[in-house]
Amino acid sequence: MSSRENILAAVKANQFSQADLPCLEVLSTLTATNDNLVEKYKTIGSAGGSFIYEVADYAAIQNILHKEFKPSVKIISGIKEMNEYTYVADVKHELSHSFADVELCILWSGLGVAENGALWLTEEDMTVRVLPFIAQHLAVVISKTNLVPTMAQAYEKIGNATYGYGAFISGPSKTADIEQSLVIGAHGPRSLSVFILP
Amino acid sequence: MSSNATKDHPQLAAIFNRDEPRVDWHDETLWWVRAKRDIAAHKLPEWELLRETASQIKNNVLSNLSTYLEQFEANAINNGIIVHWAATAEEHNKIIYTLLEKRGISRMVKSKSMLTEECHLNEYLLKQGIDVIDSDLGERIVQLAGEPPSHIVLPCIHKKKEEIGDIFHEHLGSAKGESDPKILTETARQHLREVFLTRRAALTGVNFAIAETGEFVICTNEGNADMGAHLAEIHIASMGIEKIIPERKHLGVFLRLLTRSATGQPITTYSSHFSKPQDGKEIHIVIVDNGRSIQLGREDFRNSLKCIRCGACMNTCPVYRKSGGHSYHTAVAGPIGSILAPNLDMEKYADLPFASTLCGSCSNVCPVKIDIHDQLYKWRQVIVKAGYTPKAKTLAMKGMAFTLSSPMIYRAAGKMGRFTFKYAPFAVNNGANPWYKHREMPKAPEQSFGEWYAKRKENKK
Ligand code: SF4
């Protein structure tokens, strides 16, 4: 017998009588609060080390980015409306390694979670999987109508969507491995800026 | 214990205990992490319901594991993931080596995986001439120090920043005497970026594998799993059979519990869902048993397979905090490790279920409600019955049995005992007394109960 069959046979022989799956409905209704989600997102997200801006439109985002980043640095945008930067679809066939010198990457997220500041981005939003990790800084744009209270509602919204890859990103890359002192900027972006559109 | 057994928990704890300020510091740091867990848990009114739900989901998983494994496999294959099965640690290691060898790859980058620690993968690959670099900062530090991780979530929690500074100075060229965590982290960032950009193979662990969709989830704060996996041409993920959860929506329960229990964060920075390989690249998943199916058959211990590896039971354990992770001489330390290890080798790990006060704190914090302290108590009985009682305990208990068997000797021993406590405490509070290592010795009463009773009778006359 192959290991696969051996393992499955051993598991089958040793698993005990049937236990039913619990219902998740109570949890999701319990946590479907009417809190001000933007306020909650801002509080939790900032505590997690993100910079959070409520903005009126894309022009306002550009203004902020102009102040933070010199025009000479390599910036890649996954958002059509922000067309002064290299559009990610135009470089998607380049080797992932070639993005090592990206200073800023700007992406769209269609789902944000107020309880933990996480933003859901799929491969479609990123185009290149490594981009939100390899860039020195990351900016994510989200509409406030796409915020949900907790992970329970987040997975309801994701439903059975198909994606090659997806990630919840909740802040800049960080570590506390050296004597538990929090250091921002481990291997991924040194900052996460979140722009909340109406 | 067998002759080839090395040091046991009390002996290893004694080594850690030589440096008292370090023990206090270790104790306080972990308690601080535990306190953060409490704050995070108290912020969610539904916390207990979440724990109960998670525990029930895992119950369902364990009762249907074979079906879920097959379902996961079929869906993963459908997604273009290549699935391998390994019955033992050796088989797991061989599969990985073969995958690398076939492609002529001799250098791999790895993110945190306690399963590969359990399988001693790094040592195995090193022997085959494969260079493995751990990319989680804590794991990189212990790797450079030539040590295993001492905690499943905080691998170098036992190390001071000055020691880490010395290691980095020697291996990564940081300035001598530099111990600022910010500067050391930046040094590691530069060094590991080079590694990520030059490795053709990346290995990661798996936090959750979803039967319904065939995808798997990896949680990190540093982003190292993603950097490695997205840049390499082949991504190998190692998972134990117990990592399965039935449906994607169940992640909404587990991801809410995992980091709140671990470090008090509401979620890790990255919770990455791998479903399909990138164009032109490969994802392989190795599904490992290595004793888990046996544990599934042990009714008293099967609940230990619910563990989501948050580390909360270690952070709260008074024995772990004061004895250090290495004293457990197994990949997963602390209370849960002490349940998992004897399943693999009862003789070698006979000491571990005794490395607990059975205070129940571990069970109280466990996000999936594993009855940890009850299982430790049950292991003790299994181990004693099987004849594997740790040596230190056997000696002490033999003495007890002998004393209790004769009232005369019992009285004499009591008197002598009290005399010793009073006038020669060093004779009791030293390593020669096997009980002392395990508990505070009580102060000697002025009178024994026997003496008091005899006097009382006399006075009444
Ligand atoms: S046994 Fe429970 S508390 Fe301990 S690591 Fe596992 S899930 Fe966490």
From TrEMBL, chain A:
Please list the coiled coil stretches.
Answer: none
Segments forming domain LUD = 63-196
InterPro entries from the UniProt entry: FTHF_cligase-like_sf, LUD_dom, NagB/RpiA_transferase-like
Question: What is a single Pfam family found in this protein's UniProt entry?
Answer: LUD_dom
Q: SUPFAM superfamilies per the record?
A: NagB/RpiA/CoA transferase-like
Could you tell me what this protein is called?
Lactate utilization protein B/C
TrEMBL record, chain B:
MF terms (GO), sorted A to Z: 4 iron, 4 sulfur cluster binding; metal ion binding
Going by the entry's taxonomy, the superkingdom of the source organism is recorded as: Bacteria
Does the UniProt entry include the keyword Metal-binding? yes
| Gene Ontology biological process terms from the UniProt entry | lactate metabolic process
Q: Which Pfam families match?
A: Fer4_8 (PF13183), LUD_dom (PF02589), LutB_C (PF11870)
Task: Cite the 4Fe-4S ferredoxin-type domain residue spans from the record.
Answer: 297-319
User: What UniProt keywords are attached to this protein's entry?
Assistant: 4Fe-4S, Electron transport, Iron, Iron-sulfur, Metal-binding, Repeat, Transport
Q: Which PANTHER family match?
A: LACTATE UTILIZATION PROTEIN B
Under which name does UniProt file this protein? Lactate utilization protein
Species per Swiss-Prot/TrEMBL record: Mucilaginibacter ginsenosidivorax
